[in-house]
Structure formats: C-alpha cells, structure tokens
Amino acid sequence: MVLGIEWLVTLGDITWNFDRLSMQFYVHGKKLVLRGATSEGLKIARKKQLQKTIASSVHLSMLHVGTETNTFLLQSLTTHANCQVIPNSIEELLGQFEDIFQEPTTLPPKRQGHDHKIPLVAGANPINKRPYRYAKHQKDIIDKLVQDSLQSGIIQKRCSPFASPVVLVGKKDGTWRLCVDYLDLNQEQIPYSFGG
Question: Which range of residues forms the domain containing residue 26?
C-alpha cells in the first residue's frame, strides 16, 4: 500500500508525529491513527533473501499495513538497485558525444516557428492548481531542486495565471526527480500531432 499524495490530499488536516511514528486524521468524523511499527513483532529476513533482493537490480519499496487490537501498524523496507556496469561500447559513445550529455545550463535557443506552444480550447480559463501538501523534509527537497534549476538556468521565474503542482518521483539511485503534474492543463489543450 502506498500513501500517495492524491489520497493524502483528501484527508484534510493531518497530524504527524515523527518521534512517535504516528499519523492522525479524520474520516467521516472518526479519528484514525496510523502508527509506525516498532522492532517488536517484526520478522527478520534471512541474509540470502535480502542479498537476492538487493542483487536483483530493482527499486523496491514495500509498505505493509496490518491490524492489531484495532490499530494499524506500518512497516516499510526500501532498497535501491546497485549502479550497473556500463558496457565499453556505451562508454565510448558517451565519450564521443560528451557535449550532448552534459547537464543543461541554459534554456534551448529560440527557433523561429518551432518554439513550444500550448493551444487551449476556446473559452478555457487559466489552469491554476494549488500545490500538493508535502512533509517538511520533502518540501525541503523540492525547494532545493527548484533552486538548483534556477541557478543552472534551465528554468526561469515567471508571473503567470497558470500554475501546476509538482510531484517528487524517486529514482533508482535514491535521489529525487521533480515532475510537474500537467493533467488538468492537458485536458484543456487542443490535441496536436504532426508527422515527419
């Protein structure tokens, strides 16, 4: 079970206590509390099982929810795939086109007739969606990613009536990718396709 942001925003006010590993909220007027699992009652994975899982080169996140005397226990385990060895042929290709694979430091150049546009359906109002709620440590990650992008020049500050929320997506190496949720904007745009 994943406590996704789409579900969390439906709960309204949530009280988190990271010291006690608890999360409290109300559903239909009834108070519910999710409590993090303590070391008591946890099953220990065998070394071979854990090594096999880690060596399988997958990103694994697991959250187990169970009931015990009408309370919920949350147990989680996260592993990340080890960095894979890059074949020599790929290394040579990356070296040959090193300039193409560099981190961008500016926006793409202006190209007459090819600049990106988003045509909206007639009568569509500007899409202005409020940000999702995030825990403080996740908000700090978002702030850092935005600041890094501003400093590198790949995004710019703008005043616009349009606003779409961002979503943090975990990468296999344990770092985060910042993605923009354009779902509402996509529903208001004119479908456009072109061929070559």
Answer: 5-79
